[in-house]
């Protein structure tokens, strides 16, 4: 198990990153918002007594940004851990002060997180309580929806699907419309979209479509704790993308990953709201301090909670 004492430290990492991004809320500068989140996240991570290695980060090694894949974080004393970060998931949301910008990270033991390249990834996810392996990326949308409806004892028209609003999803969308499935479109932020399938307060039954690979692994970490199901497959369209996957140790480029193939063993997942959103409220400025709202999961401690902290600026 990951040392439970580290949990609060990781929460603080996300809280600080969200605070950094929140300073640029509505300022129409997503690069500055992202950079502020990265700077805060990195400096907080480097205070923790761990031997950390970023496996999902802001970019791949040759681009040499901060929090790049392969970067060592922490003081260099303590547990060997792998870290997946998205300091600002939904840069557009933050820049335009729209709902659902979050700072998010996942932590697992060495060798336990899939290091996915920053390419697209096909994703399909559902909540807890279904028979194992009920959905499959290679099924038609019709088949997946019918299987879920049947398992729930309901009709497709009573189901809700979450889909990123992109033209690459036109075929999925028209199949869902033919089945009269309700569609919740999101403009960005599929980490929240995938997690909403396991949220009992959300009407979303299924997430499907193509989003970012790193975001897929982060969402899988949350579902690993919460009992949902997910299947993913990298979309590697060019030789360059294939080579980047190879560099990260991937050999089967068409592999369909289940959650347990992306995330092994114990995992900690934290997300802090930057702007108000479906699962979290955003940062509230209180003068010398700020309020941060986070969603925290620790698999082996069976922790799943939402917390509010006031921190000094
Ligand atoms: C995806 C999705 C993210 O950006 O990466 C998306 O996973 C980018 O997609 O949650 P496009 O290239 O089609 O714009 C997010 O929505 C936000 O980072």
Describe this structure in words.
The chain is an alpha+beta fold and 313 residues long. It folds into 2 domains: 4-111 and 266-312, Fructose-1,6-Bisphosphatase, Chain A, domain 1; 120-262, D-Maltodextrin-Binding Protein, domain 2 (3-Layer(aba) Sandwich). Helices cover 29% and strands 29% of the residues. The protein has helices spanning 7-22, 30-45, 91-95, 141-152, 170-178, 190-195, 213-226, 239-247, 259-262, and strands at residues 50-56, 72-73, 79-89, 102-109, 120-126, 160-164, 182-186, 206-212, 229-235, 257-258, 267-273, 284-286, 289-298, 303-312. A hairpin with a 4-residue loop joins strand 13 (289-298) and strand 14. Helix 1 (7-22) runs antiparallel to helix 2. The longest helix has 16 residues, at 7-22. It is globular. The two termini are 32 Å apart. 7-O-phosphono-alpha-L-galacto-hept-2-ulopyranose (VTB) is lined by residues 89-90, 166, 188-191, 211-212, 215.
In short, what is this structure?
The chain is of the alpha+beta class and 313 residues long.
CATH H-tier superfamily of the largest domain: Fructose-1,6-Bisphosphatase, subunit A, domain 1
The sequence of SSEs as H and E is: HHEEEHEEHEHEHEHEHEHEEEE
Tally of separate helices = 9
- Strand percentage lies at 25-35%
């Amino acid at each position: 198990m990951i040392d439970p004492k580290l949990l609060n430290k990781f929460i603080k990492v996300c809280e600080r990153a969200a605070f950094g991004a929140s300073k640029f809320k509505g300022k129409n500068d997503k690069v500055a918002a992202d950079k502020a989140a990265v700077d805060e996240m990195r400096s907080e991570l480097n205070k923790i007594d761990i031997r950390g290695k970023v496996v999902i980060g802001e970019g791949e090694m040759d681009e040499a940004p901060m929090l790049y894949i392969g970067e060592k974080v922490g003081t260099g004393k303590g547990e060997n851990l792998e870290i997946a970060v998205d300091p600002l998931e939904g840069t557009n949301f933050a820049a335009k002060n729209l709902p659902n910008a979050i700072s998010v990270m996942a932590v697992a033991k060495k060798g336990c997180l899939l290091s996915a390249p920053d390419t697209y990834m096909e994703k399909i996810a559902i909540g807890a309580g279904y028979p194992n392996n009920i959905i499959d990326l290679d099924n038609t949308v019709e088949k997946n929806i019918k299987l879920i409806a049947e398992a729930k004892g309901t009709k497709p028209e009573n189901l809700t699907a979450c889909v990123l609003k992109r033209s690459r999803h036109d075929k999925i969308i028209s199949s869902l419309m033919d089945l009269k499935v309700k569609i919740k479109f999101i403009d960005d932020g599929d980490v929240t979209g995938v997690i909403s399938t396991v949220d009992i307060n959300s009407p979303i039954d299924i997430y499907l479509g193509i989003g970012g690979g790193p975001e897929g692994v982060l969402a899988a970490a949350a579902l690993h704790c919460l009992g949902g199901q997910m299947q993913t497959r990298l979309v590697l369209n060019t030789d360059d993308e294939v080579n980047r996957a190879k560099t990260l140790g991937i050999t089967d480029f068409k592999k369909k990953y289940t959650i347990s193939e992306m995330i092994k063993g114990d995992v900690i997942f934290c997300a802090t709201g930057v702007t108000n959103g479906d699962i979290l409220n955003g940062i509230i400025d209180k003068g010398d301090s700020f309020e941060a709202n986070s969603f925290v999961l620790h698999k082996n401690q069976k922790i799943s909670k939402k917390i509010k902290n006031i921190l000094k600026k």
